[in-house]
Amino acid sequence: MDLTILWFWIIAALFIGYFVLDGFDFGVGMSLPFLGKDDLDRRVIINTIGPVWDLNETWLIVAGAALFAAFPEWYATLFSGFYLPLLLILLALILRGVSFEYRHQRPEPEWKKRFDLMIVIGSAVPALLWGVAFSNIVRGVQLDADFNYIGSFFDLLNPYALLGGITTLLLFFTHGVVFISLKTEGDIRQRAQKLAVKSGVITIVVAASFLVWTTFAYGSLATAALAAGAAVALIASFLANLRGFEGWAFTLMAATIALAVLALFASLFPDVMPASNDAANSLNIENASSSPYTLQVMSWTALFAMPVIFLYQGWTYWVLRKRLSRTTVSADVESAVH
User: Fold this and answer.
1) What are the C-alpha distances in Å from 159 to residues 14, 105, 136, 338?
2) How far apart are CA 174 and CA 196, in angstroms?
């Protein structure tokens, strides 16, 4: 296989890992106002991702580094043209991380409420803007002959991209709520399951609309097949949650996100940054890639490093698989994010 093709799909796999794992982190953060009746409830909810949220974010670092090394032209155009939305995502992630660490440093309720609000904002902003960014990549943006973005920030806020942003927001929210029902017991678990049913209905409608739009406007036969698979997985996840099978519901939500991201990458291939104003200005896997030698060295590195990453992360989740409840979270010591 051509190494440029291989690395295109490796980067797709890295973003799938990031969206599946950090996606439920975002959903957990956004669920605080809906499931957190009091401070103890909110502490239980935060503790569900306490040991893993920062590990999940490393997938974004790896994906960004791989993008920079394998497709430097794609990286340069993306990060210069989408500078403001990507900066907002970065600031939101920083805000969320700081809030996890500082909310328990003082006992005053107002102190904790402020940081809880920042957790919600720090989760919702990336969940929305990642969808907007990837939708614009699939749709195409205005590029000049040197592959520089020549549009404005407001050009990125088109109807298709906004629908994509709302889709990722809802997918991550539902994914996170299902994760809470999987990781908790008692009243929180029951409320999370009911909330996942309500958000699931809205998510199915919005996600179906976005996938249909993507398939007919920008997709191929492969896009249609992957989008259909994502739709089936999403509906199956909804039904599993309705029956109280949280493990299956979570697994199928992860499959939904993975298939949806694959559908977007399938819509792109072989382009990586289509030019909406002139197809000749588009970036593809050939004119955006690094040298064959660079890709060869990266391939050997990935061959040995990626299995270790998968094993370590799998082991972490296995060790921390137990459910949490109000009784297992100390009333005096908050153990989240340590």
Assistant:
1) 27, 42, 10, 41
2) 6
Is the separation of the CB atoms in 258 and 214 below 8 Å?
A: no
The DSSP element (H or E) to which 242 belongs, if any, is helix 221-242
Beta-strand ranges (E) seen in 23-143 are: none
Instruction: Answer yes or no: are the C-beta atoms of 139 and 160 closer than 8 Å.
Output: yes
Question: Is the domain defined by 3-319 classed in CATH 1.20.120?
Answer: no
Residue 213 near residue 164 (C-beta atoms within 8 A): no
Q: Can you give the pLDDT at residue 336?
A: 42
Q: Which amino acid is at 33?
A: P
Amino acid, res. 303: L
Give the list of residues 6+ apart from residue 47 with CB closer than 8 angstroms, or none: 324, 329, 334, 335, 336
| Per-residue confidence (pLDDT) for residue 320, from 0 to 100 | 81
Whole-number pLDDT of residue 332: 43
Instruction: Provide the pLDDT for residue 137.
Output: 95
Residues of the chain with pLDDT under 50: 331-338
Distance CA 307, CA 172 (A): 26
Which tokens is 120 given? 């919600």
DSSP code of residue 3: H
Q: Are 206 and 170 in contact (CB under 8 A)?
A: yes
pLDDT at 330: 60
Domain extents in the chain: 3-319
C-alpha 19, offset from chain centre: 3
Using CB atoms within 10 Å of the CB of residue 37, give its burial: 0 to 12 exposed, 13 to 18 middle, 19+ buried. exposed
Total-model pTM: 0.93
Tokens describing residue 307: 């299995």
pLDDT at 337: 43
